[in-house]
Amino acid sequence: MPLHDTFPILIPLIILQFGLAIWALIDIFRHQHYKIGNRYLWIPVVLLISIFGPVIYFVFGRRDY
């Protein structure tokens, strides 16, 4: 399948990935207390594990305030 056929499908996924990563990074820098780990653990998780990193952070790392 050529790239120009799949590009319209990829655009929303790319926007979702970057949006979640930015949201998670903002949340990481705003707060200092997490359910598991610390800031130095969560930044690489969010940045290196594609779309699942931010989801993992919001499920396991973000502390409910």
Automatic annotation (TrEMBL):
InterPro entries: CLS_N
Superkingdom of the organism of origin: Bacteria
GO cellular component, one term: plasma membrane
Keywords: Cell membrane, Membrane, Transmembrane, Transmembrane helix
Keyword Iron set for record: no
Membrane spanning residue stretches: 6-29, 41-60
Domain spans labelled Cardiolipin synthase N-terminal: 20-62
Stored Pfam families: PLDc_N (PF13396)
Membrane topology: Multi-pass membrane protein
Cellular compartment(s): Cell membrane
Protein known as: Cardiolipin synthase N-terminal domain-containing protein
Lineage: Bacteria, Bacillati, Bacillota, Bacilli, Lactobacillales
